[in-house]
Amino acid sequence: MKEKLNGFEYFMASLDYALDQRDKLNERTCKVERKQVGNIRVNCMDCLDRTNVVQSVLSRNIAHKQLWKLGLSSEPRGDPFEKFSPMLEEAFREAWTDNADTISILYTGTPAQKTDFTRYGKRTIRGALNDGIYSVQRYYINNFCDGYNHDCLDVALGKLTPSSKL
User: Fold this and answer.
1) Digit-coded pLDDT (tens) for 83-140
2) Do the Cβ atoms of 112 and 56 come closer than 8 Å?
3) Could you tell me which of 99, 95, 74 has the C-alpha nearest to residue 85?
4) For residue 75, what are the domain limits?
5) Distance, CA of 134 to chain centre
6) What one-character-per-residue DSSP string does 6-71 give?
7) Is residue 85 located within the same domain as residue 122?
8) What is the mean predicted confidence (pLDDT) over 10-35?
9) Are residue 91 and residue 127 in the same domain, yes or no?
10) Which helix (H) or strand (E) element contains residue 86?
11) Residue 142 and which of 27, 45, 62, 158 are 20 to 30 A apart at CA?
């Protein structure tokens, strides 16, 4: 996967601004430095949460390359879990954990599983307990509370025709 990811590159552009004598924007130009020529689709068939972990590893790899190109960090080693500077590392982990929770709540009704790994870089006992709680909640939601969502999908797919009678 590393070879593909490197071959796809990433988009990067620089903006130049020209100001007039009153410090108002007079002209702006954009120079494309790099073009992204592909993408990787990540979809773990049975687990939204593992998908998020893999996406965070890929985005970490690309972010390291971008920071190096901008002269803001040293050349990346290419390690899957290579850390950023401490403040950026914390912000990156928090952003991906928040992303996982938001998507998971929208899709399953519960926060994401495995966020202890995304947030701290390792599995924790508390994380495993949370995953068990979320699994039970997801089972209940999917089997007893999700009828409306399934009906909406069935209508969209033409499997269910709404009645015009009230």
Assistant:
1) 999 999 999 999 989 988 888 888 888 898 888 888 888 899 999 999 999 999 989 9
2) no
3) 74
4) 41-156
5) 20
6) HHH---EEEEEEEE-TTS-EEEEEEEEEE----------TT-HHHHHHHHHHHHHHHHHHHHHHTT
7) yes
8) 80
9) yes
10) helix 86-108
11) 158
